[in-house]
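Troubleshooting log. The previous run stalled partway through. Resubmitting the same two chains, unchanged.
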Amino acid sequence: MEISADRDGNTFYLNMGPQHPSTHGVLRVILKMNGEYIQEAECVLGYIHRMHEKIGESMFFSQFYAYMSRMDYLSAMAYNHGYTGLIEKMAGIEPPLRAEYIRVITVELNRISSHLVWLGAYLLDLGAFTPIMYAFDDREMILDLLESITGSRLTYSYFRFGGVCKDIDEDFIRGTRAFIKKMRSRLKMYDTLVTKNVIFIGRVKDIGIISQDMARRYGATGPVLRGSGIEYDIRKNEPYSVYPEFDFDIPTGSTGDARDRYLVRVAEIEQSLRIIEQALDRLPDGPYRTEIPPFIELEPGDCYFPVESARGEFGIYLVSNGEKRPYRMKLRTPSFSNLSLFNELTKGYMIADAVSILGSLDLVIPEIDR
Amino acid sequence: MRFINEVISGSYSLIAGLGITIKAFFSPIATVQYPREVIDITPSYRGHIEFVHDLVTGKPKCISCGTCAMACPSNCITVEGEPLEIKREPFHATGWPPAISIPSEKKKAPGYVERLERPLILFELDFAKCSLCGLCIEVCPENAIQFSKVYNLAGYCRQDSRIDLKNRFEEIS
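Second attempt completed without errors. Output:
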């Protein structure tokens, strides 16, 4: 941190980041302080900008798979789902039903692992060291499961236009069922260890309250929006894939403080487990992939396809002029909108609370800059 | 009274949390002492690409068509082959060398087959750029490449990450 004082001596500027443990990446925040209290927080982006949109415009459609998972390394599956879903919608490709079920299972597993990383890292920000060990222990099971079918542990390129690149086997199904059983018991453990902990409650209760109006104004999505009590989930509101076939709830908060966002995410883990369980029960037999040519061409036109990633609404807007490469690609990432709340949220809070608020927004910086 | 309640419930939550930590203290160890203990790699592990060993001929199946280089999003594959030549050789059941285009029935001399062949000179992979997406493997018309199981890939300079797959194949076989 770097401090520079104003002339009057009361207000001063505090530079937080870009290398700061609580920003989880290269996010720089310039805090205008009045003593211990924050007057303004200006976020500076661009430290990890890689021109993903422009790269997408210079490539064949099928070459862009791998880039999607590099945007949000914690829920890469959902991003792959967004891209493959968009191209399939534009090209009129119908993936087999088994592929859709496999997609839902892997995306939901990935969502749980993303929430577990957030849980551990957030509590680490708040000063609790132990929960990250438990969270990573559980996440390890998911990573092993996903590695057994995709071959990679973090940046999966598993989905293909018209299906997935490898079928799931009996071992995976058995392992997933065992994981569901274990995770249910672990959720109770997290409840005792974290949710009811008096220090944790003190750090998150009534901190960073997002009103419904404010969340709408900034275009917040995902658990940040649902924490404020708005029931909005792309999986329910604009259903895609086979999500309408599953029975699950949208957990929402009441006050919109950091604790509500925490509770929503933990409840989402339980809902994801429910979805996976149903998908495994109803998993149909049949092909997992339809063969389509590797270099496809799209009809001229444009399309927007949103999916619910672990952090909120991720959407791709793509304009095609009938060539093998997209004419324009726009990526709408949830963390960018969620971060824009930060300035208004932190006004009047202390630095320690700002760290708590920043963590509760669940930001992934490469996804903000993309 | 309320204060005392808060103190009691707060202390209880801390003790309950501590109980979980103590329980974990006696549970089995979750970590592995890496250099001394190594976990088996899953069969679907993605290392850098390598040539498939053709069991019949013992040579790589690559016909140096360059489709993998075209499909690669990061341009990390360089393929060079000799100029196209038509080879006439006795037909045998092995199917080697693989043909780019099989001549029509009319031209086919009895017992012989004409093949368009492009012998491979160089197949180089710049692993520093590779993101292991697997597109090269999927587009290969001859199924000539696969993921290897190599995971110790540290090097001292940038040139260490350039892998000549043809040389590597000859060294291994």
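Takeaways: Chain A touches chain B at residues 59-60, 62-67, 70, 130, 133-134, 137, 140, 144, 147-152, 155, 157, 160, 165-166, 189, 192-194, 196-199, 294-295 (CB under 8 Å). The first strand of chain A starts at residue 2 and ends at 5.
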